[in-house]
């Protein structure tokens, strides 16, 4: 039986694994295509924050880095601020970066989502963010509009 509490998204990017890793872990890069800066030292056991780029640096999501194997694998928990980032309520996001002859297959898996509504919301959001990441890595610029705002 398929795990209905998870979202998986796969995309192929004309780039190196190192550039994709950088796009996922560099605060300035994530701020450019995500609208939030992902801030951490990205070492296993470290915390991370998904901070707004509106000048407030408000963290809308926080978590703990569970695995960090640059440039091919990053696993972290995701929770709302104030929740236990290692508790049972935390969801888990895995990025697998597989290079192959000048391209990269990026597989994102978001597990342990609490409801069908949250899974649907995550599926929509991840498709938009990862499409924007792909464009950013391949061209140096994000899409001209934030794709998650598209009705």
Characterise the protein shown here.
The chain has 151 residues and is α+β, with helices and mostly antiparallel strands. It has a single domain (15-149), classed as Alpha-D-Glucose-1,6-Bisphosphate, Chain A, domain 4. It has helices at 17-25, 27-34, 116-139; strands at residues 7-13, 36-39, 47-52, 59-69, 73-78, 91-100, 103-111. It has a seven-stranded antiparallel sheet with strand order 1-7-6-5-4-3-2. Strand 3 and strand 4 (59-69) form a beta hairpin. The longest helix has 24 residues, at 116-139. The model has no long low-confidence stretch (mean pLDDT 94).
Topology as H/E string? EHHEEEEEEH
CATH fold annotation: Alpha-D-Glucose-1,6-Bisphosphate, Chain A, domain 4
What is the top-level CATH class? Alpha Beta
Helix segment tally: 3
Distance, first to last CA: 32 Å
Using the 3D structure, state the CATH architecture. 2-Layer Sandwich
Low-confidence stretches: none
Fraction of helical residues: 25-40%
Quaternary state of the chains: single chain
Alpha carbon gyration radius: 15 Å
In total, the number of strands is 7
């Amino acid at each position: 039986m398929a795990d209905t509490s998870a979202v998986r998204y796969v995309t192929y990017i004309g780039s190196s694994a190192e550039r994709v890793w950088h796009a996922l872990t560099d605060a300035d890069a994530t701020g450019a295509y995500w609208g939030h800066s992902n801030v951490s030292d990205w070492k296993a056991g470290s915390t991370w924050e998904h901070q707004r780029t509106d000048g407030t640096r408000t963290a809308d999501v926080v978590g703990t880095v569970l695995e960090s194997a640059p440039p091919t694998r990053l696993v972290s928990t995701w929770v709302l601020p104030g929740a236990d980032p290692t508790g049972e309520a935390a969801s888990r996001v895995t990025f697998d970066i597989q290079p192959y002859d000048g391209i990269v297959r990026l597989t994102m898996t978001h597990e342990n989502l609490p409801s069908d509504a949250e899974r649907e919301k995550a599926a929509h959001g991840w498709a938009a963010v990862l499409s924007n990441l792909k464009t950013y890595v391949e061209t140096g610029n994000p899409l001209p509009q934030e794709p998650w705002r598209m009705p």
